[in-house]
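Might you be able to check the backbone structure tokens below? Thank you kindly.
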Amino acid sequence: MRRDAAGLAGLLATTGVLHFVAPKPFDGIVPRSLPGSPRTWTYLSGAAELAVAGAVAHPRTRRAGALAAAALFVAVFPANVRMAADWRHASPAKRAVAFGRLPLQAPLIAWALRVAR
């Protein structure tokens, strides 16, 4: 597997597993506007990340998986915005994490699009 694809698949798989192993932090950033339980959305997004990781890992589905990864990174941006808003008065370390995630989405999207090529 290409190294960039392996890295992307690994990142997605790790994050996907974390949604199931430690769901509480993810529950807290689910946008309130979504219907239903935040935990449901946490599990759904974790499952989506695992499915996309599998697609990126396999050469026959890599292009579609990488495009799905780019879409996923766009889709989770509102949760990152919520985290930044919620943590704006938190400790400096938490603020750095929350606000640091916002510009991180652009290189993640670019990485996924590069893998799709």
